[in-house]
Amino acid sequence: MIITIVGGGSTFTPGIVKSIALRKNELEVDEIRLFDLDKKRQDKVGILVRWILDEDLKCGIKLTITYDAEEAYKDADFIFAQMRVGKYAMRELDEKIPLRHGCVGQETCGCGGLAYGMRTIFPMIQVIDDAEKYAKPTYWILNYSNPASVVSEACRKLRPDARIINICDMPIAIIDMVAAALNIKDKHNIVYDYYGLNHFGWFTGIEYKGEDMMPKIRDYIMEQEILLPSAYLKDKAALAGKSNDNKTNRHAKGSWYYVWKGVYEIMKNFPDTLPNTYLNYYLQQKEFVEHSDPNHTRANEVMETREKNLFDGIDKYLASGEIDETVFYAGSHGDWIADLAIALKNDTKARFLVITENKGAIPNMPYDAMVEVPAYIGKKGPEVIAQDNIPLFQQGMMMQQLNCEKLLVEGCIEGSYQKVLEAFTLNKTVPSMKVAKEILDDLMEANKEYWPTLK
Q: Options 3.30.365.10, 3.40.50.720, 3.40.50.300, 3.40.1110.10; which CATH number does 2-167+326-384 get?
């Protein structure tokens, strides 16, 4: 059993590896391979990964660190993809360029998300082609690479038969917050209903051991005026972004405060569902631009905390032999993808939230829409749980976003400036076609090294 991690130099790699290693028996994993194009970065992360496997857990799993596609994919059973094309330098531009034009600056939503998507489409297709060429015929690609909505649409269009499942851990992070807010320790007993597109969806039901928890979480949010556990609200330094302590949940620092505060603002107006936090960027565009700092965005926050902590921790280990486990994140992000692999391998029919072709699952959405819905996972892949017709408000928002993403993918594949401009103009975070064109032209210049030529 071989698991290959594409984007092996990611700061999330150590946590994912730990999740895999802790499930060694269920996965029957013999070898983990790290594959990245950035040798310097991956070599450093590999030092920590080797410590986890050989010193911390002493689990006997072989580690291979490689920069060669054939070696990375040869006979692999699972490929965990977590690429960040352009790394944080490009994420910073994704966020700051739209903000310069008075629009939301976010890495996966709005114009920044469209820019990031155009950088990621063809590298993801390359991952699929390499897996087809070298991996076992029964391989599965489990993709975390963002923006998953754009990536999944491109894969559907260009490689419809690929054995790939696109997933996102943000709904899980939201459930983590719900569990902590309601003091639920065994969150695995939470069952939720959800529908939407990736980073664009709604929880319609949350149950814990058969009890409907939606009234309780709604009351909690209305009382606290935020979706954060009361313990977090006491740590004002962390919430203000002044704490560099990695023990604080990474989704509760700095600008994340406004995201969780935004859940309250949305539910004041639309109380029937619990929104995915990313809906803030579409429903509160003006407000999020107003409290954003165009010179210091979340990209900077991450570089100053998670990135810095990890690589400083590795340098300290190399210098002193002392390891500080708080420098890397282990938890839901890694657990989610490792548990999904177990469900596929062992045919458990466990319930997961996945991004998949609609095919009637949401009756009043297009058949070929890539939607995010619950599914039972077995060896043949997702068995989607059918939904009812969704309300017109949500359907209208989803159709606008879906068509925006479809136009972007078509424009990227065809090299069509016109279609990409239409995608930017259609995005709900953009106020006019003039602004859409200005942002697109600036992002085109910034992405010359990564985007296909648009004519």
A: 3.40.50.720
For the chain, give every residue range classified as CATH 3.90.110.10: 172-295
Query: What are the φ and ψ backbone dihedral angles of 231, each rounded to 5 degrees?
Result: -65, -35
Could you tell me whether strands 140-143 and 31-35 are parallel, antiparallel, or unpaired per DSSP bridges?
A: unpaired
What pLDDT was estimated at residue 235?
A: 67
- Tokens 């990313």 belong to residue: 278
Domain 172-295 has CATH 3.90.110.10: yes
User: CA–CA separation, 217 vs 320, rounded Å?
Assistant: 46
**Catalytic residue IDs:** 169, 278
Integer angstrom CA distances of residue 135 from 130, 138, 318: 8, 8, 34
C-alpha span between 451 and 180 (Å, rounded): 41
Q: What are phi and psi of 153, to 5 degrees?
A: -65, -40
Where does CATH 3.40.50.720 sit in the chain? 2-167+326-384
Amino acid identity of residue 418, one-letter, is: Q
Pairing of strands 140-143, 164-166: parallel
Q: Per-block average pLDDT, block size 10, for the chain (455 residues)?
A: 98 97 97 98 98 96 98 98 97 98 97 98 98 98 96 98 96 95 95 97 97 98 95 67 52 80 97 97 97 95 94 96 89 93 98 97 98 97 96 98 98 98 98 98 98 97
Task: Say what the pLDDT of residue 130 is.
Answer: 98
Smallest Cα–Cα separation from 258: which of 235, 302, 291? Answer: 291
What's the pLDDT score for residue 231?
Answer: 85
DSSP output for 411-454 = HHHHT-HHHHHHHHHHSTT---HHHHHHHHHHHHHHTTTTSPPP
Distances (CA, A) of 53 to 61, 74, 214, 376: 7, 21, 40, 31
Measured CA to CA, the distance from residue 30 to residue 335 in angstroms comes to 18
pLDDT of 303 reads 96
73 neighbors 79 (Cβ within 8 angstroms): yes
Kindly report the CA angle at 226 between 223 and 227, in degrees rounded to 5?
A: 105
Q: What pLDDT is recorded for position 329?
A: 81
Q: Tell me the CA distances in angstroms from 356 to 294, 367, 372, 374, one per residue in order.
A: 35, 11, 6, 10
Q: Burial of 351 by CB count in 10 Å (0-12 exposed, 13-18 middle, 19+ buried)?
A: middle
- Could you count the other beta carbons within 10 Å of the beta carbon of residue 413? 16
Residues, the chain = 455
pTM of the model: 0.95
Backbone angles phi, psi at 284, to 5 degrees: -135, 50
Note whether 216 and 182 are within 8 A (CB): yes
